[in-house]
Design a protein that fits this description.
Elements lengths: L8 E5 L5 H11 L3 E4 L6 H18 L3 E4 L2 H7 L3 E4 L6 H8 L4 E6 L2 H7 L6 E4 L17 H9 L4 E3 L8 H6 L5 E3 L1 H4 L4 H18 L1
Parallel strand pairs: 1-2, 1-8, 2-3, 3-4, 4-5, 5-6, 6-7
Length: 209
Amino acid sequence: MADLANRCLYLCTPDRPDLEQFVDACIAGGVDIVQLRDKNLEARAILERARLVQKVCRAHGVPFILNDRPDLALEVEADGVHVGQDDAPPSLARRLLGPDAIVGLSTHAPNDLDGALEEPVDYLSAGPVSQTPTKPGRAGTGLRYLTYVVERAKTPWFVTGGVTPDSVKLMAAAGARRFVVVRYLTEAEDPKANAATLRDAIDKAIKHA
């Protein structure tokens, strides 16, 4: 976990037929942390698919995070779990997974961020900056929220929502240094190439921010 702050490209992916190969390609292109997030799978299916992703991540030395379910994260020996504002509380995730696990928490507004400051979390996500179909019904926060997070956050944080090579420059100017990507990679014809392009854009944006 000591190097969590140095990881900047976080893939969040649903299940897919080529899940193992897809994650491998994304990591080869520059992804350095991976989350499996699928709201449609039953528990046993999540366990099966999570074990595939865990195997790929371990082979590359990349942390594997499971969404929502600290109990299933414990079962597959994931590196950590990511929970939302309406999921199991971070304190429960911490008790289940122990002091060495990575626990992440979503925030979408200043009151979420304020409430997260005393939670036993290792990182936060902030956003979505732009409205996204992966978060149906949730309005975009805009870049202004990132300024609030910069001023208040006590842990590393990742920006979410609309992360592309074109958008990261403005996000970095607003204070973002770590980025969660979904569609730019999950919809890519060549995930490795897209990951490499995005990673290069992030590195340049951070350098010049």
